[in-house]
Amino acid sequence: MRRTQAESSRQEIDDKILKKLYDSAIVVKNGIEERGYKSVLFSSLSEREATAEAAVHIGYLLTQLKKKVLIVNLNHKSSDLVDGYLKADKGASLIKQLKESAYISEAIAQSQYSNLDLIEIEEVTSDEFVSAVNEYDLKSKLSPLTNYYDVLIVIGPGEEHFSYYANILELVDSAVTIVNSRKNDRKRLKTYMDKFKVFNIRSFGIIRKD
What we know:
Radius of gyration: 17 Å
CATH topology: Rossmann fold
Helix content: 40-55%
Structural class: alpha/beta
CATH superfamily: P-loop containing nucleotide triphosphate hydrolases
Number of domains: 1
Number of strands: 7
Protein name: ParA family protein
CATH class: Alpha Beta
Order of helices and strands: HEHEHHEEHHEHEHE
Mean pLDDT: 86
Low-confidence stretches: 1-13
Strand content: 15-25%
Strand order of the largest sheet: 3-4-2-5-1-6-7
Organism: Corticicoccus populi
Number of helices: 8
């Protein structure tokens, strides 16, 4: 059956997006193997859906490259989208688990894909998140999980809507940034990405959402 011009165009766009995601997965894989990176932040100024989609798809592609992946979703506004892709079992909510236990393993939920698991955060304000992170030391709780997973993929909230991004950046050692080519505020993006140097975060580059 012949495809219409619109269908062909859509397939071409999809193929281009898939190639970008696969290329990014290879870069992350190489960083894991060659530089020993253990965690990668997927974030943007405000592209919530594109950020979650990129994180989930690259997480899946990494499992196809023989890596075991844990996605830590720190943006509760993306939960429905992430859950829709992964169809994960229900684990304990992250902040509740932080408060109740010295371990957060009970917050890990198994997805429908092998070697791809998920931790979700419940709906909290920026202040509530930062208070819990500081009091219960999320970074130290995540660190032991790198003994069981090749990489932790952290989905960050939109930088424009979160007041304490330093508390997100301190959790990771590398990053992938999602931008919208048509709405990109280059000055603000540069200011945000300059923070990576302060936290010694390796940038794997930018994925552009057209």
